[in-house]
Amino acid sequence: MRMSTSHCTTIAAIAAFFMMATGEARSADRLPPYKDDLFSTQKVLQTGDDGAFDVIEYDEMRDINGRDQIPEKRAQQKYVSLGVRKVQADETLSLDGQRLDVTRVGQAAGAAFTVIFVHGRNGDRRLGANDYTFGGNFNRLKNLVAGSDGVYYSPTVKTFDSDGVAAIAGLIRYASQQSPGKPVFLACASMGSQVCWGVSRDADSVKRLNGMVIMSGVSDPDFIKSAFYRARLPLWFVHGSRDPVYPAGDQQALYEKLHKAGYPAHFTLYQTGNHGTPIRMIDWRRALNWLLAS
Predict the structure, then answer these.
(1) What element of type H or E holds 91?
(2) Cys-Cys with 79: which of 75, 150, 152, 237 at CB 3.0–4.6 Å?
């Protein structure tokens, strides 16, 4: 995996972990610790760009087989807390004449913040609401958001073209109306990243957004022409170094361009990680606290 010269500051893993576990956690985090011993103790192999770039160790035998009761299908019970289902509901929203199926977790109105997750190809709202797949990481996300008085939406996106962008733009508008003046964050995975990039060009949506996360996504060479870029909203990239679908190098090149321009971006690379690794491994508490503080 190509590394720029600015990424060559390598520090001892224990020091990097100490910085992540203590320094960031003490900076007035909005989201308090939640199962951090299971999800946040990730070994940092390399860091650079004053902390904006990091490479994290990924080991399939440990992070899938050692974490799942049934590999890739059911996480061990200790990674999952199902009490959050009490504030979870499947809904069909009517948004400017469009019907959008969503799973909502948390209070619909008056939420402290909103997180919207857009799945990739062959997915639907169930993917982002499944408690047991991806090592229980979506269950942690739901608990983190709902436990901090936020609301989480996992919608079904039928297409990843302008229609899909319009559907998510409608959901962003709805969420901001339900919780006026509160932050709204959009996270997109795999082919769903095309929706994120499309939304980034919609000035009305950008006015209501406060940041985005792109996981295993396609790169957007024209991002610097977008309303999102002009608004200088924070952007967190997560990718696996061995992604066979969308090469990590393309996304990293975009990050490097943004970083050189002084844009608020972060890039996390999971060394030896595959296409699904970011969804399984992203430290949601760390990423959301960074977005909330940016």
Answers:
(1) strand 88-95
(2) 75
